[in-house]
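Incident review: delayed structure delivery

Summary: a single-chain prediction request sat in the queue longer than the usual turnaround. Root cause was a stuck worker, restarted by the on-call engineer. No data loss occurred. The affected request and its eventual output are reproduced below so the record is complete for anyone auditing the incident later.

Affected input:
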Amino acid sequence: MIKQESYIEQMIVSLRTRLLVMGASVEIAVDNMKKAVADLNVGTAQAVIENDDDIDAMENEIDASSLALLARTQPVAKDLRFVVSALRMVVDMERIGDECTSICSQVVLMKDADKKQIMDYVGEHLQSATDAFRSALKLMRNNNAEEALTMQHTDDEALQSEVAIIERMMRELECNDHTVAHPDPVLIMHLILLVHSLTRIWRRSANIAGHIYFASLGDSLKHAPEKMKAERLHF
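Output delivered after worker restart:
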């Protein structure tokens, strides 16, 4: 029994290490994507696109390790929650890598655009999305479920920010004041796709926080406020 518990513990530690390695790789992709957007740097954008296969390979490796752990050890309680959460987290991290690739594809298409104009539209959204991922990664590294509560409203914030940006773009496109410079409709199309990908990064970062919360406490992060309120009323 002791040997079995030790074996499970070793496999959990190995799985956690692989998750952190994948998280670090996705963090590099996110950071480089941010630089590519801010500087309209095609070289950096292409590097992100080319390195996406490495992230995909890590997802497959972690999936295989997780399924092997489930089959060989049949973990229960907290160990089982961690493995289930790991399977979910790698999906979100892989999708974040995909969104970085999509954004960088837009950067390549916008290489001759005005950097200042682009950042004026998307700068705050870009910062918030990348900050959300860094926060989620910090939670993963520290395994801090309680701090995950700080990200419980992230989903709504991401959507509200995206809607505000798109509404502004539409207003400027439809403006009838000929003394005001209108944005290029093609550029706006690229920016809408870029902003939508940033929103997905932002929201998937919130998903990761939710998986960490579930793995540790066995509860849904989205329902945490209601549960805490009910507990206070019961007390």
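Verification: The domain at 2-234 is CATH 1.20.58.220 (Methane Monooxygenase Hydroxylase; Chain G, domain 1).
Action items: add queue-age alerting; document worker restart procedure.
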